Amino acid sequence: MPILLYNMEDSPPCLMVRLLAKTLGVKLEIKNFNYEKGEHKAPEFVEINPLHTVPTINDNGFIVNESRAILGYLVDKYAKDDSLYPKDPVKRTIINQRLYFDIGTLYQPFLDYYCQVLENGTLGHPSKLARLEEAFQVLDKYLNGQQWVAGNSLSIADYSIVSSVASIECVGFDVGRYPNVTKWYQKAQKTIPGYGEIVGHGCALLAQFYKKCKK
Q1: Mean pLDDT, to the nearest integer, of 119-132?
Q2: Which candidate among 3, 32, 70, 135 keeps its CA 20 to 30 Å from the CA of 21?
Q3: 83: which residues sit within 8 A by CB, 6+ positions away?
Q4: Contact 15, 198 (CB under 8 A)
Q5: Catalytic residue ranges
Q6: Which residue has the higher pLDDT, 116 or 141?
Q7: What are phi and psi of 86, to 5 degrees?
Q8: pTM
Q9: Environment class of residue 35 by beta-carbon count within 10 Å: exposed (0-12), middle (13-18) or buried (19+)?
Q10: For 77-122, what is each residue's pLDDT tens digit?
């Protein structure tokens, strides 16, 4: 049975889940929500996920929300090996740290600054942009002297962060100011299967929606 994925086509967290599923060969049955119509707040969805957030998966009755938790679950259950999320405690801890960095330090100021446009048509406070710039400075340091965000091997942390970076770039942030990030970003786009069809397409939709909402 395919995994049921509650999805929004332009949602960065949804993009990372779909991207990893593509790599792993995991079949998804996708149920798209229309955010503007409030479909994610339907009672039947809130019943299984009180946060009413996407992505959410239903894997034969096992329901998980929060994209980065889903990434770990998919590798642990469906990957042929643990290369994308090693069981070695040191390697896994570094990957987990990068995932937490993504959700708390990189992605959050993007929501606070740029995604305010989607709510009220205006950008957030300039301090939020400064926080985002600081996050990119940290990411650039993480990537100094290594190929991927958690070392020299591709991991689920790259799937998470590349979806965030692509979404941040598509609304106007200049990723090119950070040389290590730029080099990694270009490599990730060429290396990760399905990047163009999934992340590229999703970011094009996000950019279009952002332009529509911006006053």
Answers
A1: 94
A2: 135
A3: 153, 154, 155
A4: yes
A5: 11
A6: 141
A7: -60, 145
A8: 0.96
A9: middle
A10: 999 999 999 999 999 999 999 999 999 999 999 999 999 898 889 9
